[in-house]
Amino acid sequence: MSKDMNKPTEKAKTESISRPPIGPRRLLILGPGLVWAASSVGVAELVFATRAGAIFGFLLIWVPVVSLFFKYFITELVGRYTIVTGEDVIAAFGRIETRIGPVTLPKGWILWLFWAFFVASVAGMSGIALTVGSALFAIYSGVPYVVWSMIALILVGIILFLGSYRGLEYASRLLMIVIVCFIFYAVLRRFPPLSEMAAGLVPNVPEESLRELIPLLGWSGAGAMGTIWFSLWTKASGRGASAMIDRPSTEEVKAIKSWISINRTDLLVNMILTAVLTVGFIIAGAIILNPLGIVPEGEGLGISLAKIAGEFYGPGAVMIFLVGVVGTLYSTLLADTDGLCRVAGGAVKAQSKTKRPEHFFYMTFLIVYVIFASLFTTVIQAPVLLLQVTAVIDTILLPIVGVMAIHICTKTLPADFRPRRATIIMSYLSVLFFIFFIVLLVMAVVKGVDFSM
After folding, report:
1. For residues 342 and 337, what is the distance between their CA atoms, to the nearest angstrom?
2. What is residue 124's predicted lDDT score, i.e. its pLDDT?
3. Less crowded by CB within 10 Å, the N or C end of the chain?
4. Any idea what DSSP says for residue 8?
5. 279 pLDDT higher than 50
6. Looking at the Swiss-Prot or TrEMBL record, what is one Pfam family this protein matches (predicted)?
């Protein structure tokens, strides 16, 4: 067989790039960004944002706004790389060899960090399961909330094993809309003075606020793992190239650049949407729960959240709101467990030489995940603490993911598709921004700041 016969034909080469929409149709494609935003409406909003408002009033309104602004640049790079290469960033990260002074980190070193997070995130998923359990306990207290939590985890395992939960996803999105309507109606009914909210947009970091600030900072929108999932979602959506093209034609370059532009618009719109929703939850916590001295936590978390609906609608609405809380948080538990097992399975596949399919590793991790998360729910019955610890670890990973994303986009992408200098600068500033708050947290812990709330 000649060498020419091994080369892809021009037709096959062109078909490796999906055709981007043009004109107004560009605005109708809110794919990965919409999934990213919808999946983020869960723990960060219902738990962290509401708690931030309940404890500190309007003081931390600036946190999700500034956090999402900086996350935009890192997430855009992750999506850009996948659009240009047709490859998710897990494989790209696994090929990077890093030198730190005299020390050389071997290829795949970051995958070991993903492993560490995978272990830590078992606690986080237990925390989400306990929040689901607390909401179910508020609906029916005849079953202990820990038992409800274990039932939720077992059902997650069954649903993901069967491999199809699209119908449940759609239902949870509808329930999420119900919650959002409750929240914004409550805000409009008792709209706070603009001056107080404006003051909350000015960054202010009391040391005692770091326990609530860091998790909200890290999980507003998505944390490090959520950023990587955006790459997986972009790939699954079929945007851009299905594989790296050595010498793209003028038409192919134009098509890929168009997809990059669409992805940016998609991401920007949904970052703004997520910021508005998160701020709404903070305000709801500030105007309803803060005056009552109620902080959502433990088995009473669901009941505390339901106060938002009960304040204006009465007992019937409380039940509707709780159902919405269960659906939204359960969807988060389902999507996060699915995503974490995919990242773990992808990491193993990238590191090992086995011919076993990635799905085999996915199923293995799913079984391990459900078993150990169920054990955690019985041993550590503190949902907020479990979520905070996992969110802090995920936040620590964000600067690392940011630096790696900058590297693969500036060093491995063809010149036509590399990010502009302004984007690179803002990406580095994003990395420094999150490092700054991680250092603040470490200093506060060393100083022995009392974080008890």
Report:
1. 9
2. 82
3. N
4. P
5. yes
6. Nramp
For 275-293, give the DSSP string: HHHHHHHHHHIIIIIHHHT
> What torsion, rounded to 10 degrees, do the Cα atoms 312, 314, 320, 325 define?
60
The four Cα atoms 30, 32, 35, 36 give a dihedral, to 10 degrees, of: -120
Q: Is the pLDDT of residue 449 over 70?
A: no
d(CA 54, CA 295): 6
- Cβ(54)–Cβ(296) below 8 Å: yes
For residues 88 and 232, is the Cβ–Cβ distance under 8 A? yes
What's the CA gap between 81 and 88, in Å, rounded? 8
| Segment 377-409, tens digit of pLDDT | 888 878 888 888 888 888 888 999 999 999 999
Phi and psi dihedrals of 356, rounded to 5?
-60, 140
For residue 31, which of 327, 261, 230, 278 has the smallest C-alpha distance?
230
Smallest CA-to-CA distance from 406 within 425, 380, 379 is with 425
Instruction: For CA atoms 349, 354, 358, 359, give the dihedral sign.
Output: negative
Look at residue 381 and give its three-state secondary structure: coil
The two three-digit tokens of residue 260, written as one number: 């990059």
Per residue in 209-231, is it b (16+ CB within 10 Å) or e — as a string? bbbbbbbbbbbbbbbbbbbbbbb
pLDDT at 117 over 70: yes
Cβ pair 199, 371 in contact under 8 A: no
Q: What is the CA radius of gyration of the chain?
A: 22
Neighbours of 26 (CB within 10 A): 14
Distance of CA 326 to the CA centre of its chain: 18
| 319: number of Cβ within 10 Å | 14
Torsion of CA 285, 287, 289, 291, to 10 degrees: 150
Please state at what angle helix 383-411 crosses helix 421-447, rounded to 10 degrees: 150
- Nearest 5°: phi and psi at 97? -105, 130
Neighbours of 372 (CB within 10 A): 16
Least confident of 29-33, 107-111, 296-300, 433-437: 29-33
Q: Which of 40, 56, 65 is nearest to 332 (CA)?
A: 40
Q: What is the DSSP string of 69-81?
A: HHHHHHHHHHHHH
> pLDDT category, 434, cuts 50, 70, 90?
very high
Confidence bin at 450 (pLDDT 50/70/90): low
